[in-house]
Amino acid sequence: MSQIISKPAIRRLVELWLRQGKRVIAPVQVRPNLVSYQPVRGPDQVLLEGFVRPLNSIKQVVFPRHEQLFQYRVRGKQIDLLPAPLPDIERIVLAARPCDAAALPILDHVFNWEFRDAAYNRRRELTTVVTLACTEYDAHCFCTSVGSRPDDTRGSDALLLDLGDGTLEVRHTTDKGQSLFAGQTQASTRTAPISPGPERRADLRRVSQSLEQAFERSEWAAWTNRCLGCGACAFGCPTCHCFDMVDEGGPTCGARVRNWDACQFGQFTLHASGHNPRGVQSQRQRQRIYHKFHVYPKKFGELLCTGCGNCTRNCPVSLGVLPVLEAMQAEGA
Amino acid sequence: MLQPLRETCRRLLQDGTVQVVIGYGQAVRAVEPYPVFITAPDDVGQLVWNEQCRTNLVKYLLRKEIRALGKPAIVVKGCDERALVVLQQELQIDRSQIVVIGVACDGMDEPRCEVCDAHQPRFADHIIGHATNEMQPAERRYAHLGEFLERPLPDRMAYWKAELERCVKCYACRQACPLCYCERCIVEKNRPACLDTSATLKGNFAWHIVRAFHLAGRCVGCDQCSRVCPEGIDLRLLNLSMAREAEASFGHRSGTDPQAELVLGSFSQQDQEQFIR
């Protein structure tokens, strides 16, 4: 037996969650050809079909692009530090793509590695993730190349699958997901077909083998020199998590804040001395590939990539992870 | 069009006139053409030309990774070419060390193409194909801005708040812009910091306003900033507003006349403003 729910019933739930003061984040059609995860104001905004994937990711729900760590106040010789209060609003992410949700357990490693990040963990506890299995793909999707699939349940509390007649099959994967839909679904004999997903385009075993020796290869420039050095790949990526900490304010009061940062920015590794260990773009691109497919897997046992393809989709010049891996493969690296 | 383009590039590489051709390549139709850097005459087959060649390649003339490849030839459209004119005026490039291959363009299905008056390149060394440049009256060129300005002020403020709220400060707008070439951008100055680096509404307003002002009288309207913005923010509106001001006040259309004096880069003893003397 399966559990099903109608799309109108889902929208009624959204209305209920909003009334309960919860924050609902879902794919929203910002304008034609532009779908983005945004906090919704009403149930009609939520997209439940007709899109490949949003241009941004759900990492913003647990790791916002900007957050205050503490405020400071200086009075004479007295310096007061006022820690930022921990988040307390419950969040429900609805109709997230599995390639977004799968990033959350990956991010958990780094935010609980040598330092347990209290704000991140609190947001994680406050968040319930409901994914929507994919039925369509574009030229940038490559989840199947990195060990994922259209109905991957990693990181999701419940998975919705479109039955094609205005109803969705609901599969719970955690207690959180179970309680979210408790009493809202109907038993059915129908189960949704699972799409095979996009064609496999990278051979991961080969990638990880070649990265053992590819660091000094001279072709990195040829593979990556069209990169313009912006952060569109990193900021749209569900797994990229680098940040910068800066003090904003004046000499008497202000705040220490944490902002997203991106490894393709020229200043990312610029030392105070003026030396930059990654002085040219190909070294920064090489770093991005190594971090995702070599360093992170060695340290945490998981790839730092879910194959969502946003890096290429958002890239001004259609670069991103997959085109680099494909170029490497084409040249026998 | 493609054959003569490839042949011109092959010849330039073969006879050693240039060491690299900056052009467009494409893997599959579903993915937009991307910049390629051809260094061997036999590789010119990688070059493509079609109605999806939206990138303004001029930016690459300024990137050190590409400069390191040697003397370049660059493929430009009539609109891209205007950026070359400004870079030359601002002494950022030595035009004699660059071979410009202009390709006639019927439009790339972008908003700016509807009011384009530079289908045919004007300043290129080699011109491939033929198109007709029709004069476009200013009202038409600024119609997009005109429509926006008809909305009441509170509406416009609400619009910008909603749009800039989405900005994540990935700086794709800056990195794709052929005229954003500061070695250290003002948002990167941190001793002391000039602008909030945070992608908050305040920081985002500051960033986009500063960028628009830095491009005032310089922006050539290639719309790369709008094209590359992952959040779909219509930065074209800001640039049109600055361009219209430069044209109305100084009769200046950036990048259309290599002999023209720069609006912000020139100085006159006869200036009517007191503060400048």
Brief sketch in words of this structure:
The complex is a heterodimer of chains A (333) and B (277). With 333 residues, chain A is α+β, with helices and mostly antiparallel strands.
Could you characterize what this model shows?
The complex is a heterodimer of chains A (333) and B (277). Chain A is of the alpha+beta class. Chain A has one domain. Chain A has helices spanning 7-19, 59-62, 98-101, 103-111, 118-126, 175-181, 204-211, 220-224, 232-236, 281-300, 310-314, 321-330, and strands at 2-6, 23-31, 34-39, 66-75, 78-83, 91-96, 127-132, 158-162, 167-172, 186-188, 243-249, 253-260. Chain A has an eight-stranded mixed β-sheet. The model of chain A has no long low-confidence stretch (mean pLDDT 96). Chain B is α/β, with parallel strands linked by helices. Chain B folds into two domains: 2-128, no CATH class; 138-250, no CATH class. Chain B contains ten helices and five strands, in the order αββαβαββααααααα. In chain B, α3 links the parallel β3 (72-76) and β4. Chain B is globular.
Q: Keywords, please?
A:
heterodimer, A: 333 residues, alpha+beta, 8-stranded mixed sheet, 4-stranded antiparallel sheet, 12 strands, 30% helix, B: 277 residues, alpha/beta, 2 domains, 5-stranded mixed sheet, 10 helices, 9% strand
Alpha-carbon Rg of chain A, integer:
21 Å
Q: Main beta sheet of chain B, described?
A: 5 strands, mixed
Strand order of the largest sheet of chain A: 3-2-6-7-8-9-1-10
- What's the number of domains of chain A? 1
Q: Trace the largest sheet of chain B across and list its strands.
A: 2-1-3-4-5
The succession of helices and strands of chain A, N to C, reads: EHEEHEEEHHHEEEHEHHHEEHHH
Structural class of chain B: alpha/beta
Major interchain interface with per-chain residue totals: A-B, 44 and 40 residues
Summarize the amount of helix of chain A as a percent range.
Answer: 25-40%
Distance between the termini of chain A: 48 Å
Helix content of chain B: 25-40%
Q: What is the count of DSSP helices of chain B, taking H or I runs of 4+ residues?
A: 10
Please state the oligomeric state of the protein chains shown: heterodimer
Count the beta strands of chain A: 12
Describe the global form of chain B. globular
Q: What portion of residues of chain B belong to β-strands?
A: 5-15%
Structural class of chain A: alpha+beta
